[in-house]
Amino acid sequence: MLRCGLSLVSRGLSAPASGGPWRRLPSVVTMAEDWKAAVASQTKRLNSSSEVVERLEENGHQVKRLKKDADEEDVEDQSKKTPKRKIVLLMAYSGKGYHGMQRNVGSSQFKTIEDDLVSALVQSGCIPENHGEDMKKMSFQRCARTDKGVSAAGQIVSLKVRLIDDILEKINNHLPSHIRILGLKRVTGGFNSKNKCDARTYSYMLPTFAFAPKDHDVQEEVYRLDKETLKKVNELLASYKGTHNFHNFTSQKGPKDPSAKRYIMEMQCGEPFMRENIEFAVIKVKGQSFMMHQIRKMIGLVIAVVKGYADESIIERSWGEEKVDVPKAPGLGLVLERVHFEKYNRRFGNDGLHEPLEWAEEEEKIAVFKEQYIYPTIINTEREEKSMVNWLNTLSIHDFSSSAAGIQASNKTSKGSSDLEGSDGCGDDSD
After folding, report:
1. Could you tell me which of 279, 285, 266, 264 has the C-alpha nearest to residue 203?
2. CA 29 to the chain's CA centroid
3. How large is the average pLDDT for residues 393-410?
4. Distance of alpha carbon 199 from alpha carbon 295, whole angstroms
5. pLDDT per residue over 166-215, tens digit each?
6. Per-residue confidence at 1, pLDDT binned at 50, 70, 90?
7. Which of 139, 159, 113 minimizes the C-alpha distance to 336?
8. Which residues are catalytic?
């Protein structure tokens, strides 16, 4: 009946004026239309709700994507806000357990100080990760390539970094406690810490029983260095001052190699002092640059002379062309104290744009670090491993007379010679 009525209405026909079911048709039609509209409205609302849910789900991912994009943009913005600048870092470290200062990229077999430093620079956000893999990208250079086990109180490295807020604190947060960055200064764009360095000062801390005569049975903790012996030690050390051919004081250098000539400015032994019931003394040496093992051999030869194993004329003879057997003192007590930049400071230190590379304000921190990490390591290791005692026992097997065969071997090694890891490398093409 309803379908028929709807059909008549759709054809433009009117219902009879008389009574019957047609009289109720308009209300039925109205109800049908209302029902149809309600269904459409409900469907629309359902579709709309579904769309909202889908949009919410999409927006949830979109918010995450936007947040990620925003974070990346923040990093990029941060990089733009903190462009790279050439700086120098003042470093102090205890070298025990490390295979020297210089990093051997691609070799994890021998851990170096620079391995830990580069890792900290990357983690703190000072340099991109790829700069750690290729250190040339950040123009990295160190003043001295300290030997295996050698410590430093005033090492200087130059590099380009992002000058982020609280940079020293953030770098140190990612370093072990026995490696510290104690200072930072801005330098000229072309600054190179190795090439601009005028001189290096090293110290060598050793127990004074090392100078006891060879024919005396000396108890390590009882021996005390007398003034006459100290005077003799300083006379021998002073003979190194000036320019000499130190080919006998390193490896892979022949007497004809120009780079074997080095200039020594100062060398002397200080007054003895007591630590852990053992008397120690510190020898300080300042020179333009040093080759691998040079300082340890200079000290080793002086000890051999003072103890009576060799005549003191051997020192001057060692600068000649003949091969001389020079003993190498243990590396434990050697410390890079500071590096000097006199020429740079004169030119740029007072130009109003750059600071002089001097560290008076950091002296206290340097002293504290040495007392906490360097001296205890030297003293405790000496007591436990007896490196000086064991080395002294090897002096008797050295031949301190010249050897003609040694000259020929030395001449062969002079060809294509280069500094090895642990030397300053200054003036050579080894870096």
Report:
1. 285
2. 89
3. 68
4. 14
5. 999 999 999 999 999 999 999 998 999 999 999 999 999 999 999 999 98
6. very low
7. 113
8. 147
